Amino acid sequence: MSLFFTYNMRNLLTRRLATVITAAGMAFVVFVFSSVQMMAEGLKKTLVDTGSFNNLIILRKGSQAEVVSVVDRQKALIIETLPEIGISPEGILLSAKEHVVLINLYKKDGDKPSNVVIRGIDRASLLLRERVRLISGRMPLPGSTEIVVGSAIQKRFKGLSIGEKLRFGLREWTVVGIMDAGNTGFSSEIWADIDTLMQTFRRPFYSCIVFRLRNPQDFSSVKEKIEGDPRLGLMAKREVEFYREQSEVMARFLKILGNSLAIVFSIGAIIGAMITMYAQVANRIQDIGTLRALGFQKRDILMGFLIESIILSLVGGVVGLIFASLLQFLEVSTLNWQTFSELAFRFNLTLGISLKAIAFSLFMGILGGILPALRASRINIVEALRMG
């Protein structure tokens, strides 16, 4: 069988053009399949990494996003009296009242406007977001019309360099810092002082409260205490779970879209592989007759041609996956369907996506090669030698 395998490999190398075209078709399909899966995974990872497991986010019951949540001041005071809230080594209560609104800014690549999240922050907001760090400038002063801009937003939108001024809410705001939060949603936000922001938009309420638990094991009891208090009408979630839920709708849509495109393109790739293998059978009828005369069984012929098709698909799958992996160096942006705001993220290739892509390519190879392989195994020995 090893001799027969060597024979198969030589035939693939002999017919280089047909081999390359078929493998390229497989590679394209795997590239499309992998890239969309990576996009969905990257979006999900960006949002999930935005949250912290030890942080709780408090919103109005039924709210799916911070921009539609309302927490009045009296309820916020009740929440901040919870003894389970952590305290920093400096004695600061690790609880932050925040206000989230959307503003419209213009992108650098043309004059297309897009929504951007601006978050009103409290004293402890930065302490609660350990991934956020200033890379230039400083944080806004309390009561000022100063803003700090996320690095992903600063790269894509006009007028967001340090010292530049931005006008929204009938006020002029000065950029005093650039922050970076890695591959998280905070890199796509603008931060301002919460009291100034609420006065600007004339909204006397908070969007949410975020606090860190003294003991992460207290989550269930704290959640039950908050949601069971009839005075509040609030719900509590782990911050990481809240952002995971925000990613699900968009990620599900991208996966459905990617799988649909991959199925459509795979039909063409399978047909291409089938044509190539049928041509291989037609060109090697005498070889098949000789192999049968030498004692090779029908199943050997069947497996030999099927292996050729699988090799083609495997090569195509690996090449497509390699090209898809290069997308990880790109940073792209899309609309977050939960907040209707700009969100920057990176493609993310995981072991699971890699295995799915290779399995998908092998599946295409088997479907494309099975009928030609069956045709080759059923060729009559005598007729094959006569044709030679």
Write a structural description.
The chain is of the alpha+beta class and 388 residues long. The chain has 12 helices and 12 strands. The strands form 2 sheets. Strands 1, 2, 3, 4, 5, 6, 7, 8, 9 and 10 form a 10-stranded mixed β-sheet that branches. Helix 2 (16-50) crosses helix 10 (298-325) and helix 2 packs antiparallel against helix 11. The mean pLDDT is 84.
Secondary structure elements and pairings:
Elements: H1 2-14, H2 16-50, E1 55-60, H3 73-79, E2 95-106, E3 113-121, H4 125-128, E4 133-137, E5 146-150, H5 151-156, E6 165-168, E7 171-180, E8 189-193, H6 194-200, E9 208-212, H7 219-227, E10 234-238, H8 239-283, H9 285-293, H10 298-325, E11 331-336, E12 341-346, H11 351-377, H12 381-387
Parallel strand pairs: 3-8, 5-7
Antiparallel strand pairs: 1-9, 1-10, 2-3, 2-9, 4-7, 5-8, 6-7, 11-12
Major sheet: 10 strands, mixed
Q: Helical proportion? A: 40-55%
> For the terminal residues, how far apart are their CA atoms?
24 Å
Summing up helix and strand content along with how strands pair, one would put the structural category as: alpha+beta
Uncertain spans, ≥5 residues at pLDDT below 50?
Answer: none
Domain count: the total is: 2
The run of helices and strands is: HHEHEEHEEHEEEHEHEHHHEEHH
CA radius of gyration is: 30 Å
What is the 3D shape?
Answer: elongated
Number of strands: 12
Beta-strand content bin:
15-25%
* H/I helix tally: 12
The pLDDT mean sits at 84
How would you concisely characterize the structure shown here?
The chain has 388 residues and is an alpha+beta fold. The chain has helices at residues 2-14, 16-50, 73-79, 125-128, 151-156, 194-200, 219-227, 239-283, 285-293, 298-325, 351-377, 381-387; strands at 55-60, 95-106, 113-121, 133-137, 146-150, 165-168, 171-180, 189-193, 208-212, 234-238, 331-336, 341-346. It has two domains: 2-48 and 246-387, no CATH class; 55-212, no CATH class.
